[in-house]
Amino acid sequence: MSKKSNLEAAMSSSTSKASESTPLITKTNDNGEEIQKGGKGLSVNQAALLVAGEMAGSGVLALPRALVKTGWIGVPIIILMAAMAAFSGRRLGDCWSIIEGRDPEMRSRKRNPYAIIADQALGKTWSAAVSLAIIVSLFGAAVVYLLLAAQIIEALVLPLVPTVTFCIWYMIVAGAMTPLMLFATPKDFSFMGVIAFISTIVACVLYFIQMMNDIKPFVFRWGIHGFQDFFLAFGTIMFAFGGASTFPTIQNDMIDKSKFGKSVHYSFIAILALYLPIAIGGYAVYGESVAPNITGSLTATPLTLVGNIFMAVHLLSAFIIIINPVCQEMEELYNIPRDSLGYRTLVRVSIMAAIMFIGESVPRFYTILALVGGTTVALLTFILPPYCYLNLTSQPPRQGEVTSEAPGWMKLICWEIIVMGVVGGAAATFSAVSAIFSTAQATPCYLK
């Protein structure tokens, strides 16, 4: 009796302690992986909103000008690149699921999941290369987003404060966004995805209505301009779908990471539904005269004004989403403890200082956009995801592990995307570099 009472007391004590410390319910998904219901994390819809929210802005503004340089053939190219980027994003999610299945320790949240995928699939050298490419890619995108936001804000308030220059507005915007960079991981700012995506939808609807009001009887359209212009536009299109750098970080914060593929599908369908009307409408209505930033071609009306406000909100919200993986990469590099707010603040303020310097040095966003699109975006979105997937699935299974070899048709699509990414990225990079050195660049703000 004493043994039984002691056992019951021990069980009662352990149960009460467990219930006090972990109120989570553990379940198993379709892949046999454990997921925790009741814990903090992103749902499928929240992850989709974050993916769509961080990508949708720059493409909406820049794609009409890209069609000027490609002609109408740019429309099927946009659709093709969207399908390729979605396929690659799905394979990147599969890579992390494979790694988690092989090593249960990987199921805890990681700061640099993309680098871990490259390490497991290709080795340490590629892991370091991926970390560097992520920093360069998202850093460049962050600069572009702040430049666009500052450009829109300057146009909005120009009648009120005509003496405040674009360079000063860029510094004001960067300073205002610095405190919002202190969110630790995407699960801490899932609301940013909602804000970013909804604001983009509203802006696009208003822009499209204004385009229809601006229709003219005849607009001149030239078609394909030549090799350099075509691949400059190609780099812009690649950039418009270049969100893969953040995909593993967002997936890593999901409650059920195996469902990331659904989030990718939902987000790319939504993005394409936003991109195509604005890109086609902008080229059809304004023709060769469309500006690099479509807002510069719209007639100044209350519709355009409100649309610009919502687009500025989107760009600033998307900035917080895309800069977070860069911050986490740098914190991992310097071994910053997760609970060290002081060191984290120091790292992230330093990153913002670098963003301010680059933006003040190269205040023309479209040259940065095309160059980043042809280099790091091509690598991280179109080349490495399918290549890592092919390498992981071709590795011999470990003891007790079920083989995960990819079917033949998937291997074929993966290699086609890899070749397209290499060739298109190289041509876009060459065109972007040629354009940078062959045209007069704007004087850096600090030299004026």
From TrEMBL:
<feature type="transmembrane region" description="Helical">
    <location>
        <begin position="66"/>
        <end position="87"/>
    </location>
</feature>
<feature type="region of interest" description="Disordered">
    <location>
        <begin position="1"/>
        <end position="37"/>
    </location>
</feature>
<feature type="compositionally biased region" description="Low complexity">
    <location>
        <begin position="8"/>
        <end position="22"/>
    </location>
</feature>
<feature type="transmembrane region" description="Helical">
    <location>
        <begin position="341"/>
        <end position="358"/>
    </location>
</feature>
<dbReference type="GO" id="GO:0005774">
    <property type="term" value="C:vacuolar membrane"/>
</dbReference>
<feature type="transmembrane region" description="Helical">
    <location>
        <begin position="189"/>
        <end position="209"/>
    </location>
</feature>
<dbReference type="Pfam" id="PF01490">
    <property type="entry name" value="Aa_trans"/>
</dbReference>
<dbReference type="InterPro" id="IPR013057">
    <property type="entry name" value="AA_transpt_TM"/>
</dbReference>
<keyword id="KW-0812">Transmembrane</keyword>
<keyword id="KW-0472">Membrane</keyword>
<feature type="transmembrane region" description="Helical">
    <location>
        <begin position="230"/>
        <end position="251"/>
    </location>
</feature>
<keyword id="KW-1133">Transmembrane helix</keyword>
<feature type="transmembrane region" description="Helical">
    <location>
        <begin position="298"/>
        <end position="321"/>
    </location>
</feature>
<feature type="transmembrane region" description="Helical">
    <location>
        <begin position="417"/>
        <end position="440"/>
    </location>
</feature>
<feature type="transmembrane region" description="Helical">
    <location>
        <begin position="126"/>
        <end position="148"/>
    </location>
</feature>
<dbReference type="GO" id="GO:0015179">
    <property type="term" value="F:L-amino acid transmembrane transporter activity"/>
</dbReference>
<feature type="transmembrane region" description="Helical">
    <location>
        <begin position="263"/>
        <end position="286"/>
    </location>
</feature>
<feature type="transmembrane region" description="Helical">
    <location>
        <begin position="365"/>
        <end position="384"/>
    </location>
</feature>
<protein>
    <submittedName>
        <fullName>Vesicular inhibitory amino acid transporter</fullName>
    </submittedName>
</protein>
<feature type="transmembrane region" description="Helical">
    <location>
        <begin position="155"/>
        <end position="177"/>
    </location>
</feature>
<feature type="domain" description="Amino acid transporter transmembrane">
    <location>
        <begin position="41"/>
        <end position="430"/>
    </location>
</feature>
